[in-house]
Structure formats: structure tokens, C-alpha cells
């Protein structure tokens, strides 16, 4: 079959059978394998030359290793070796060259502390487990020993006490299972550390307690359950990991919308459909499901997310996956995102290694999507809210913080994150259009040099609102209260300033596709802007006379979903003094804010002492703000 530009055929794949899954995996792998076949060095995949915190050669080895996440499940069935002998030759010869000290394409026997290749050893280990009968067991003792010796370097160097410990544990589990060394004590030592990171409801923290994001499901949870499944691991630690995975199911399920989209939040969004990797590993390891959940639910969460992703513009013209999210975008990348880092998403295809007779393939998907309208999640510090029919997820956050990664303030410390409208990361801080300040409050001492919240002084996640306290300067304090009432929410800011400050606050971003796809909705309410596109309605009602609302146009390529956007934004200047600013915001995927005639119905907002009321025609949402 001739493949279309941009891998367009994958958008039409229904993903209803194992044959469909095979077609999707083949579509993703084929362009990469074409490039791999052209490489001058074995065990290298060079698809571009953008930089990372590790050297260029390591980015090429990383690229090769990350393809193993798809190639391992693909070749777990030996009949596919006969179907794709060139691919199998490329990957196995690349591995054998990479671990052979005498080969010119050796990956190196002098790996340093914190070496990126320790991460990639996870992919190699998984491949060895998945193809054990056809590849590992066909090797001579000398070749096996070379693999073991190369991977054993991880036991003699310093690695961070984060998810990297799981890669080392995977390596040592394979070395132990293969009979070369008994490294079970080393495995236990690493899990003794990561067990201390556990928070509850399946959540752990990865290095920093204030930084809890998608990395937990597709790293902490995925690699633990993957190891249990690959090694058929028994014992107390394995049982503990299984129980945590079971506990995680209802919590993480609420990060998904009915259309398959997952909540974009935090770092490493370049890994895209790794968002579904937890569901894949859970199916592969046959974890016990909590009450109310079935294998059909897990299957739907997994495949629905993949279907959503395959409809996005994630491929280049040659079918490769570049750095980005819903489109190629370097703006929000982390320093550790190399040119081929995105292929880490292939680890989600671990479920393809399930044999043909596994119940996963015969169990029907449960298309009746389960969600809780409002779910308080104390571990990731969120109120996770769904729209009426579950097509939109909004996460109201406070207290998260990431100091090591680029644009951490945008990725962790905005008021709201959305599966429909995404979020934006700034290109600069001089002009408002560079900042793309959706769902956050920005302040400056002039019309230039804006800043947003970066580490709160205090925070609280309540059952019905979120509170945070921010001090941009020693003589300025801003207390924030965010009250969800889907698809609306209210933000209240208590500002105490001893200096003149400029303020700007945005609603949700929405795509700017041109006039034929968008319109500003008329309203009789003063100081209000509403903007409708094919993805929904965003808007703002400024209820404080100090600020003026308008529709702004930020720099392109700032939003993770849409290359070009508009943001309802309110701005103003505050002289020294105390202020209480109240605003109403709309992010409406399901057009729930319109009446039967297509007219916008705006709720009323009242603030009486510490009680805020959002008054609709048929009900009222009332919340007492304890910190007010």
C-alpha cells in the first residue's frame, strides 16, 4: 500500500481489531525504518539535528532505542520476523553492534553519571523480554554477555532518584532472570527508594513533591506494571505495584474526555500518546480492576486516546513524528527532548504483544464513557471537572511548581488546563502577545516585562474551589480563588499592592482559522468578550471596573493545540491600594452556554462577604471562601 503524505491513512483507522492495531503500528514504524535503513552507523536513528542536554550522538542512539518500544511488541510474534525480515535485521544488528566493544558502532563502555542511555536501557530490556525466544535465546554466550556487560554500567554510575530508578530495576530484573547475576538486592534497594515517593490513590511524585504530571502515569505507573508483566514477577513488591495500579485506575480515568483526549498538563507532552501507556500496561500485566471498572473500560480508554491522537497533525510529510504536541512545535519542548524523543510514545503499543487469544482482543470496548463531574484529586493538587457529556475536561490547579524545566510557570501554575483548548507557553515576556497569557494572571511594572505565578506562598484544594496566594514582589500580594461551574468558572483576586502594577488576565485560547470559522458573539453585558470557533466558545466577563476586556492575538505557535490563536483578555493598571477583582470565564466545548435559539446565556455572579454565588436560570452554585 502506498502511504499518504503526513501518514494521513492512520486518521481513518478505526482501531477495532488487532489487525487495525498492527496497521497503525506499521504506519508509524515504516517511515522511521526507511530512515534507519539509510543510516551510516548501526544502532543510530538520526531524523533531525535539533539539540538536547545530551550530545548529538546520544540523541541518535536514543532515537534507535525508542523505536524498540514499538519493534519489541511487533516482533514478539515470530511470524512478523518473516513478514519484515529487513526490519528485524536492522534492529537486531543495531543492538549487537551497539553492545560490542570491538565494533566501530559501539554505544560506549564509558557511560558517565546521569547518562541519557541509562533511560534508553529500559527500551532495550523490554525488547529482550518481548523477543526472548527468537532473539536472546538464539545468541551465543559471548553475545549475551556483551549485552549484560553493556547494561551493567547502570549499576556503577550515579543516576537521579526519580523514574530513572525503574530503568535500572528493569535492567537488573532481566539480568537476574537470564541467570547471569542475582541482582535482586539491587532491585529491592531501588524500589525501597521509589516506594517512599508514593502519595496515595496510585500517585507518586517524581523527584519533587510539587511536580506531579503525566510523567506519573506514563513513567512511575507504566514502568512498574510493565516490569511486573514482562517478568511475570511475583512477590510482595510486585503485589504492591499491582495494588497501586488498581488504585490508580479511577483517579487517572478522570484525566480523559469522552472524545479520547487526555488532559495536557506539565512537562514531556512531546511523548503524546504515551498518555495511554498506563492503560496498555495494565491490560498487558492483567492487573485487577477496581469495583465498577471492566476490561472493556480499560480497552476503551486506551484505544479512544489512540484514535484521538491519530486524528491530530502529529506527522511530518515523510510520516515521522517531530517534537511537538498536536502539531510540530519546538516552543514548549524540554531540554531533554531530542529530535526522536517523541517515539517514547511507542511504549503504549505494549498491548500489541498480547497473544491473539488474550481476552483483551475479544472483549468489546465499553463505549459508555465513565467520569465524575467533579473529582477532587489531592495528590496532583487539582479539581478535575467534566462537561455535561464528558467531552471536555478542565483541571483547576494550585500548588504545583516546576523550577527545572522551561516554561514551568505555564505548564504547572495556570488556573485551568483543558482537553479542548489546551494551554499556551510564552515565546517571550516583553509584550503581552509574546506571553500568550491564557488562564493566568500576568503582572508588570510597566507595559513590558510580564510575569505570572511561579511558586505560590500558599494553596488549598477544596471540594468546590481552589485557592492560591502569590507574591510577585515583596510589597505585592495576590490571593486567588477559582470556582468551577462548568462550563463557566469565576476567578476572584484579592490584590494588596504598594506599587503601581499593570495586570492582564486571559480566558481560554481558541484557534484562529480565519473569518469563515469564527465569530464574536454579541452580548448586552458590559465589558465582555465571547469568541466562537468550531471547537467551542471561550469568553470573559470583567466584573471589575479596573479592567477592560478585548480579544487579543498572541504570537503563533504558543498554544499546544493550535498554531494560531485568539484569547479573550482583560487588562488594566492598578495604583497602590487594595482591590477585589471578580471575573467570569467561559470554556464551552458542548455549547452548553447557549439557549435553544443559539443565544448566549450569561449567569450572574454575586460576592457577599466571603460567599460567591453563580446564578443560573435553573440553579445556583454557592461557595464559601474560607481564606477570604
Structural overview:
The chain has an 8-stranded antiparallel β-sheet with strand order 9-10-11-12-20-17-16-15, with no helix packed on it. Strands 7, 8, 13, 14, 18 and 19 form a 6-stranded antiparallel β-sheet that branches. The protein has 628 residues and is an alpha+beta fold. α2 packs parallel to α5 and α11 packs antiparallel against α12. The protein has 2 domains: 346 residues, Glycosyltransferase, CATH 1.50.10; 251 residues, Distorted Sandwich (Beta-galactosidase, Chain A, domain 5). The radius of gyration is 25 Å and the shape is elongated. β22 and β23 form a beta hairpin. The relative contact order is 0.09. It contains 15 helices and 23 strands. The longest helix is centred in the N-terminal third of the chain and has 19 residues.
Keywords:
15 helices, DUF2264 domain-containing protein, UCP014753, DUF2264_N, six-stranded antiparallel beta sheet, 29% helix, DUF2264_C, elongated, Glycosyltransferase, alpha+beta, 628 residues, Beta-galactosidase, Chain A, domain 5
